[in-house]
Amino acid sequence: MMELVCGISLLCKGSEDDKIQAVFKVFDENDDGFISMDEMYKFLTSVFKVVLTPAVIGAMNSMGVSVESAEDLASVTALECFKSADLNHDGRLSIEEFKTWFYGPRNDPAFMFSPVRKLLQ
20, 120 in Cβ contact below 8 A? Predict the structure, then answer.
């Protein structure tokens, strides 16, 4: 179900910001206005099941990131996300923290969420 919702949200019309807000709301499972580490992992796993291709896996491996599955990449990415975006260290991301992370290093080819960001544009 999550893969379907994520795929649909990526393909819907609207601004990039509208899509990000819609995805945030869908994966805020308990509707508390924040994404927990577990919710982020589930969200990223769903996204990466849609967009992770052998080419992306090869590119990640060539950058020194050992990735064999969507779950592997989701785990690594969720940890990095919280490390860089959970600015108040409360173990959850607000919509603003999520956007800060998502819009982060736009020109960094090592940024693991780049393939998804391209789909949202």
Answer: yes
Instruction: Give residue-wise pLDDT tens across range 18-34.
Output: 878 887 888 899 999 99
Please answer whether residues 9 and 83 qualify as being in contact, where contact means their C-beta atoms are separated by less than 8 angstroms: no
pLDDT tens-place string over residues 73-89: 889 888 988 988 899 99
Phi and psi torsions of 36, nearest 5°: -80, 170
**Which residues are 36's β-sheet partners?**
92
Give me the DSSP letters along 65-97.
----SHHHHHHHHHHHHHHHH-TT-SSEE-HHH
- Domains assigned to the chain: 2-120 (1.10.238.10)
Which amino acid makes up residue 13? K
Six-digit token string for 53: 């291709």
Reported residue count of the chain is 121
